[in-house]
């Protein structure tokens, strides 16, 4: 059996299955007549954290051979070791099947989430709702509303209105069909401009949190790993307002383009790898925009326009402004958000239950090993069977025999 002595793999275990040599980072424990190999493996697996705690050194702690030799271990007759290994593997097999089913359910939830979002942005979730409305604007009315609201916002902000190039017929052909009351527009139609975050260096403490790309998790902000700033100029310029939607412009190819919505949880600004969209609230409900940017349609578009570098991809503000957006009336956007959240809240509850059960499964694994090496895993019938084996002998007899063998080998 091999034990990794230091580095990122410290405490890892394996059997040597081929002819090989080891280096100084690995220690080999040679098979002998005291332990069944798998019994030793599960024993060390159970005691792994004890070993790591004994490791010496700073940045790269090391398990020495002396620490290994001084590790106190449980010993029992060889037939009992084999029976314990068999029982462990039977229970672990059942446990792994349960874990596999939980992980499958977790993957199926991801598929369901995307199915909900797909139907939401095809108008399916609010089809009956639309049939009950009498005063919804048509697609042309929505475009006129965009023009008026943007002109009003530009005048109020003292900005020159930037024209957004409409979709071509060919581009519209590549997008899915929308209800007649909806219209495909570009995200640039919903805003007077996007805004990049601060490039100033953050600190471990300060007056205001700085949200980074790692804080965006599943369309929400994770507040558990924060950096801070006390720079008043930066805070004034980049302070977030409730319902700001932030877009991750630079990340690994699979994560670039993720978004989250700021709900005013605590004062915060945003870092340079994020873009604030600054959508006009008269045109787009923030949650509707956030859910759309996390759906399959938006992800596909992002993959088609991103620029790939070494381990990093980028979607700049201009490309973000050209993202497609399924525009419908504000009341319908609000209704869609309610329909989505009703369904996804059930998903969240199921997912939490799955995570709880996965944690319980890991605890159960350790409980099985604890019982095994306390002599409590085998029942009386199983113990009676192993005590009838030809090579059964009490542990103290086994140890005396090994001691005698070692003494004889020492003389040689």
TrEMBL record:
Gene3D superfamilies from the UniProt entry: DNA methylase specificity domains (3.90.220.20)
Keyword Hydrolase in record: yes
Superkingdom in the source lineage: Archaea
Record keyword Protein transport present: no
SUPFAM superfamilies: DNA methylase specificity domain (SSF116734)
Domain called Type I restriction modification DNA specificity: residue spans: 6-101, 179-359
Alphabetical GO biological process terms: DNA restriction-modification system
InterPro entries: Restrct_endonuc_typeI_TRD, Restrct_endonuc_typeI_TRD_sf, Type-I_RE_S_subunit
UniProt GO MF annotations: DNA binding; endonuclease activity
Pfam families: Methylase_S
Key words of the record: DNA-binding, Endonuclease, Hydrolase, Nuclease, Restriction system
Family: Belongs to the type-I restriction system S methylase family.
Name of the protein: Restriction endonuclease
Source organism: Methanosarcina mazei (Methanosarcina frisia)
């Amino acid at each position: 059996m091999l034990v990794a002595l230091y580095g990122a793999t410290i405490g890892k275990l394996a059997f040597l299955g081929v002819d090989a040599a080891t280096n100084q980072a690995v220690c080999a424990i040679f098979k002998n007549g005291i332990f069944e190999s798998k019994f030793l493996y599960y024993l060390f697996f159970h005691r792994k954290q004890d070993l790591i705690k004994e490791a010496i050194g700073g940045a790269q702690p090391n398990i020495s051979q002396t620490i290994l030799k001084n590790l106190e271990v449980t010993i029992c007759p060889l037939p009992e070791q084999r029976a314990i290994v068999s029982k462990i593997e039977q229970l672990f097999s059942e446990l792994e099947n349960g874990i596999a089913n939980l992980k499958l359910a977790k993957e199926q939830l991801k598929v369901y989430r995307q199915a909900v979002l797909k139907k939401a942005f095809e108008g399916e979730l609010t089809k009956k709702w639309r049939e009950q409305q009498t005063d919804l604007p048509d697609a042309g009315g929505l475009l006129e509303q965009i023009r008026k609201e943007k002109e009003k916002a530009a005048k109020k902000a003292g900005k020159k209105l930037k024209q957004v190039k409409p979709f071509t017929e060919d581009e519209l052909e590549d997008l899915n069909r929308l209800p007649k009351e909806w219209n495909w527009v570009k995200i640039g139609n919903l805003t007077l401009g996007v805004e990049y975050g601060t490039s100033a260096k953050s600190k471990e403490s300060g007056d205001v949190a700085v949200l980074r790309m790692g804080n965006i998790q599943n369309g929400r902000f994770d507040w558990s790993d924060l950096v801070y700033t006390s720079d008043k100029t930066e805070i004034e310029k980049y302070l977030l307002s409730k319902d700001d939607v932030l877009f991750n412009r630079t990340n690994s190819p699979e994560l670039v383009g993720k978004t989250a919505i700021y709900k005013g949880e605590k004062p915060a600004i945003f870092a340079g790898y994020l873009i604030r969209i600054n959508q006009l609230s008269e045109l787009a409900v923030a949650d509707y925009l956030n859910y759309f940017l996390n759906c399959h349609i938006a992800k596909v578009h992002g993959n088609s326009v991103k620029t790939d570098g070494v381990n990093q991809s980028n979607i700049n503000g201009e490309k973000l402004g050209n993202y497609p957006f399924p525009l419908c009336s504000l009341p319908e956007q609000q209704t869609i958000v309610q329909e989505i959240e009703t369904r996804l809240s059930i998903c969240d509850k199921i997912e939490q239950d799955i995570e709880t059960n996965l944690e319980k499964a890991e605890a159960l694994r350790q409980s099985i090993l604890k019982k095994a090496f306390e002599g409590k895993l085998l029942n009386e019938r199983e113990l009676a069977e192993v005590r009838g084996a030809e090579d059964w002998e009490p542990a103290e007899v086994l140890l005396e025999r090994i001691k005698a063998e070692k003494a004889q080998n020492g003389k040689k």
